[in-house]
Amino acid sequence: VQLQASGGGLVHPGGSLRLSCAVSVRTYSSDTVAWFRQTPGKEREFVAAIRRTENSQHYANSAKGRFTISRDNAKNTVYLQMNSLKPEDTAVYYCAAAPGLIVSEIRRTGAYNYWGQGTLVTVSS
C-alpha cells in the first residue's frame, strides 16, 4: 500500500504546476483520493478530493477556480493541476487515499487510511 506524490517545485506567482499521486492500493481502498497541504506550525488542510464511485470532485474554497483534481484509472494516478499560484499556496502537499467517503468526511484528515510522503511547492518571485 503506497502513495507516491511528485511534481512539486519552485514557481513564480501566477504560474502553474501539476502534482501527481501514484496510487498502488486496491481500488476499493482508494475510491477517494485527496490532496492536503501543510505549512510549518499549521494543521494539515484539505485542498481537493476526487471520488471514483461518485465521479465527483470537491475543492476547498481556496482552490476553487484555480485547481483541478483528476484521475487516470488506467495509470492509477491522481493529478492536481494548480494554476494562478499564489505565495500563500506554498506548502508541502500530501496525497491521501481512503475507501469511499461520504461528502461530510472528505475534508477530515482522520478519514484517510493511506498517505504519501509529500512534495514541496514553493511560490515565490
List keywords for this structure.
mainly beta; 125 residues
Description:
The protein is mainly β and 125 residues long. It has no helices and eleven strands. Strands 2, 4, 5, 6, 9, 10 and 11 form a seven-stranded mixed sheet that branches. Strand 7 (67-72) and strand 8 form a beta hairpin. The N and C termini lie far apart (37 Å). The mean pLDDT is 94.
- What number is the mean pLDDT? 94
End-to-end separation in angstroms reads 37 Å
* Main sheet makeup: 7 strands, mixed
Count of helical stretches: 0
What is the CA-based Rg, rounded?
13 Å
Q: Summed up, what is this model?
A:
0% of the residues lie in helices and 49% in strands. The protein has 125 residues and is mainly beta.
Task: Tell me the layout of helices and strands.
Elements: E1 2-6, E2 9-11, E3 17-24, E4 32-38, E5 45-51, E6 56-59, E7 67-72, E8 77-82, E9 91-98, E10 114-115, E11 119-123
Parallel strand pairs: 2-11
Antiparallel strand pairs: 1-3, 3-8, 4-5, 4-9, 5-6, 7-8, 9-10, 9-11
